[in-house]
Write a structure and sequence with these properties.
- The structure holds two protein chains of two kinds.
- Chain A has two domains: 38 residues, no CATH class; 234 residues, MetI-like fold.
- Chain A contains 15 helices and no strands.
- In chain A, helix 7 crosses helix 13 and helix 14 packs antiparallel against helix 15.
- The longest helix of chain A has 35 residues.
- Chain A is globular.
- Chain A starts with a helix and ends in a 5-residue tail after the last helix.
- Chain B is mainly alpha-helical.
- Chain B has two domains: 56 residues, no CATH class; 171 residues, MetI-like (MetI-like fold, Orthogonal Bundle), CATH 1.10.3720.
- Chain B has 15 helices and no strands.
- Classes of the chains: A mainly alpha, B mainly alpha.
């Protein structure tokens, strides 16, 4: 990316500058003036802090101590051996691996059912979308009640059919799945709305054409028309879903604080604890760099897939 | 497919959709029901949706008194409003310049925007926190608002929208003697309401719900935003008074849910348009 910046600046030939008319110069000045506040703030709140995080990652800076020194890759060496951090990377991966596919396929299925069904469309859209517009911290509290091992409605219902419900948020083996349920519940509506828009954009004639060509069953039509036509939407929804799962924090902070026994320790929660509770800024910065690297890799994968994808629209 | 004929396939479809909707709405149903229950009801009959003793008034009174709800809601509204206004005022001129004016920094800015899209607040929070701590600006509206004064996503969204606007419109305005600021205020903004609405919804939903940054910079209840306030409330309640907890939850979720129910079409359009990020 840095190379891109360099070449794009370099593309303006120095000789052309002299030949520019007064009007062009005035336009350039206006353009610069109008974007100056934005440029300044991008530097102040994005570029500078990102640079600082990378630098701090190489220091032993702790808030409250007057001095700090550069320690090279010491933080990263420590990270590679930090059981909490490794556990939280693993948990985040598991969470993303559960929430992403389920929320995508559930949303796609529901979107197709709604698209095929004439009535109730706006009601269903509202119902599934409501969690997206709700305060997650608040709704997590409601889920805590639903998941309550003894008085919670879910376990009460299970007991009625003779099943002893698990301790959803309290047992190490279960907690990540329970958080995933909340994650899916919260994100399906968002994906659904995007899929609905994608489905509406598919020209009807394609389906008739596919039928003429022998695509008789619903599955054939899905495989030959719907799925390929939804390609760009699916790619986009997938990227967003993965990134949002990697950023899971609210439910963990509200409901489990990483527990029991670190079973729900996730990346952002670990960074939060190290950096803002224990105030080990240098070490937490190194974790943040890993987090940023994950985001960069994910975006990079998206670009690569996008380039290879056949565009139908 | 006439809506009056119920074939087997349609019955199956509708059943799946309805069952799913019921599951998705269940947390809301239980929230509203539990907010009206006395502690004894909650422990004995969690599946009875209609409270046996009508306890709404008591639970709401408790929720209202334990945490200063008006302050929370006021803070939420103030912070979201300040963030939104500043973001729009900063992003629109920049996006306009990038879309319609030729200047060298435009290319650099494009790279910055694309890079910025990658960087969430979680990545910049540590140095920003240290800086705010050093200048003694923690626990203030300034700390809550400042890091979000720039929305590269906003610039990106407006840029896409402005590029599609016809140049003739702008040329005509310039021939009439308008300055660039005049063009933005009287030509661009009036034609950009769909984009501005979409962005506003995106921004308000994101910042009304954000817990991470307020949790970091605010330790004083006076500046708590709704998510943070709810955390305090939970801590103060020691967890098990679900009636009051659900009442508090209901109060805090209702502004945005209400706004969503009133302006659903706009929300969905906004999400589809801003869906580029999320």
């Amino acid at each position: 990316m840095a190379d891109m910046a360099a070449t794009s600046i370099g593309q303006v030939p120095a000789a052309a500058k002299a030949r520019r008319s007064a009007a062009e110069r005035q336009e350039a000045r206006a353009g610069l003036m109008l974007s100056l506040p934005a440029i300044f703030l991008v530097f102040l709140f994005i570029i500078l802090p990102v640079g600082a995080v990378i630098l701090l990652g190489f220091t032993n800076f702790e808030l409250g101590y007057p001095t700090f020194e550069f320690v090279g890759f010491e933080n990263y060496v420590e990270l590679s051996d930090d059981r909490t951090f490794l556990k939280s990377l693993w948990n985040t991966t598991v969470y993303a691996a559960i929430v992403t596919p389920i929320s995508i396929f559930m949303a796609l299925g529901l979107a197709m059912l709604m698209e095929a069904e004439g009535i109730g469309r706006s009601f269903f859209r509202t119902a599934y979308f409501l969690p997206v517009a709700s305060l997650l911290v608040a709704m997590a509290t409601v889920w805590q009640y639903l998941f309550h091992p003894t008085i919670g409605p879910i376990n009460t219902m299970l007991a009625m059919i003779g099943i002893a419900g698990p301790n959803w948020l309290g047992s190490g083996g279960m907690v990540l799945y329970s958080l995933s349920i909340i994650g899916v519940w919260q994100s399906v509506g968002f994906n659904l709305v995007l899929f609905l828009a994608g489905l509406t954009a598919i020209p009807r004639e394609l389906y008739s054409a596919a039928e003429v060509d022998g695509a008789k069953s619903g599955w054939d039509r899905f495989r030959l028309v719907t799925w390929p036509m939804l390609g760009p939407t699916t790619l986009f929804v997938t990227t967003i879903s993965v990134i949002n799962s990697v950023k899971v924090f609210e439910t963990v902070k509200t409901l489990t604080e990483g527990g029991p026994n670190k079973a729900s320790e996730v990346l952002l929660y670990t960074i939060y604890q190290e950096g803002f509770v224990y105030l080990r800024v240098g070490y937490a910065s190194a974790m943040t760099v890993v987090f940023l690297a994950i985001l960069v890799v994910l975006m990079f994968i998206q670009y690569r897939v996008q380039d290879k994808q056949v565009h139908y629209s | 497919m006439s809506p009056n004929v119920f074939t087997f396939g349609r019955v199956v479809r509708l059943s799946i959709l309805s069952l799913g909707a019921l599951v998705f709405l269940a947390p809301y149903i239980f929230m509203i029901s539990t907010a009206g229950k006395a502690q004894s009801d909650i422990f004995t009959s969690s599946l009875n949706l209609i409270p046996q003793h009508w306890f709404y008034a008591e639970n709401f009174a408790k929720a209202w008194s334990r945490v200063h709800m008006p302050t929370l809601l006021f803070n939420g509204v103030m912070v979201c409003l300040m963030i939104l206004v500043i973001q729009v005022v900063i992003a629109i001129p920049c996006a306009y310049a990038m879309a319609k004016l030729k200047f060298r920094a435009a290319k650099v800015m494009m790279v910055l925007v694309m890079l910025g899209l990658l960087v969430p607040i979680h990545a910049t929070a540590l140095p920003l926190y240290v800086a705010f701590d050093r200048v003694g600006a923690l626990n203030s509206y300034m700390a809550l608002v400042a890091p979000f004064s720039i929305s590269v996503f906003g610039i990106f969204l407006f840029l896409q929208f402005f590029r599609a606007m016809p140049d003739d419109l702008i040329h005509a305005a310039r021939l009439d003697g308008m300055s660039e600021i005049g063009v933005i205020a009287r030509v661009i903004v009036p034609n950009a309401w769909p984009a501005i609405t979409a962005f506003s919804i995106f921004s308000v939903v994101a910042h009304w719900n954000d817990l991470y940054w307020p949790l970091i910079v605010v330790s004083n209840q006076a500046y708590a935003t709704p998510p943070l306030g709810l955390l305090y409330f939970r801590a103060a309640e020691a967890g098990d008074d679900y009636g009051a907890l659900m009442a508090a939850t209901l109060i805090i979720t209702s502004p945005l849910v209400g706004a969503f129910l009133l302006a659903q079409k706009r929300f969905v359009e906004g999400i589809t348009m801003t869906g580029l990020k999320g």
